[in-house]
TrEMBL record:
Gene Ontology BP, a term: inorganic cation transmembrane transport
The name this protein goes by in its record: Cation/H+ exchanger domain-containing protein
Species name: Symbiodinium necroappetens
Keyword vocabulary terms for this entry: Membrane, Transmembrane, Transmembrane helix
Protein's UniProt keywords contain Glycosyltransferase: no
């Protein structure tokens, strides 16, 4: 019987969603909203506190993920022009290939191992650059550089993370028999398609829910007007929660994922 490690991202999503719902209920019945938030935290400490304490390293990774999410929210379809893709892909590709060549020639790695090393070491300074661009945009609100970086940084990070996932699948561990190349390529293709399809579905459902809070009577009673600051905060918390749920779906050791994809080795 395989053991399943509870994903921290999923637990955080539960805390945010339940806290948002309890807060909305307390506001609806005329009670202080802060009491509802504290009550949800008190309830979850009996189920999740120890897991959260031992997952401090994973929380650092989640902070990087949330930085990318916030930067991605700044992107519009019209921002994804050809020069943005060149800036996001060309420097990272050159760096990745350069590291791989060095690993093969000097460290005597195989080409696949060298590419995996390159995808690990390729520079992604999004966690530092994006906050700096936030400060820059406040000082110079009309300058085009922050919006350029907000569009470029998530694309570069997505490229590096996707390359790492694909290349890791090509490198068979020493204790396992090599997997046929065609099977690996098909598996990675199916993973990419399934990830994109699920992401689009969750994004559409989340946008519909956030936009419909004032159109459905029950949601209108529970949630604030989306045009207000409180309503915008609620929508943002819902979006983060759904994103954390999506992130946690594939968490777990190989063969013991929360949502296993049996057709992909």
């Amino acid at each position: 019987m395989p053991t399943y490690e509870y994903p921290v991202a999923l637990g955080l999503a539960y805390i945010l969603l339940v806290g948002c719902l309890i807060r909305a209920f307390f506001v609806f019945v005329g009670l202080p909203a802060s009491v509802g938030v504290m009550l949800s935290g008190f309830i979850f400490q009996h189920f999740f506190q120890s897991d959260l304490f031992f997952a401090r390293d994973e929380l650092q990774g989640l902070s990087f993920f949330l930085v990318l999410l916030i930067a991605g929210l700044e992107i519009r379809s019209k921002d994804l022009q050809a020069h943005i893709f060149v800036m996001a892909l060309l420097p990272a590709s050159c760096e990745l290939i350069g590291i791989a060549v060095y690993a093969c020639k000097v460290l005597e790695y195989t080409p696949v191992e060298g590419m995996v090393l390159g995808s690990v070491l390729v520079a992604m300074g999004d966690g530092l650059v994006i906050p700096k661009m936030k400060e820059f945009s406040q000082t110079f609100p009309d300058h085009p550089l922050p919006r350029l970086v907000f569009a470029w940084a998530p694309l570069e990070a997505s490229f590096a993370l996707t390359a790492f996932g694909v290349l890791t699948g090509l490198a068979s561990p020493a204790h396992q028999a090599p997997t046929p190349l065609g099977t690996i390529l098909l598996a990675n293709f199916l993973r990419l398609v399934a990830t994109l399809a699920l992401g689009i579905l969750l994004g559409c459902v989340s946008c519909w829910f956030i936009a419909s809070r004032q159109k459905m009577r029950i949601l209108k009673l529970l949630f604030q007007d989306p045009a207000t600051e409180g309503g915008k905060t609620e929508g943002f918390l819902v979006l983060i929660s759904v994103t954390l749920i999506a992130l946690s779906l594939g968490k777990g050791e190989s063969g013991s994922e929360l949502v296993p994809m049996g057709f992909c080795p």
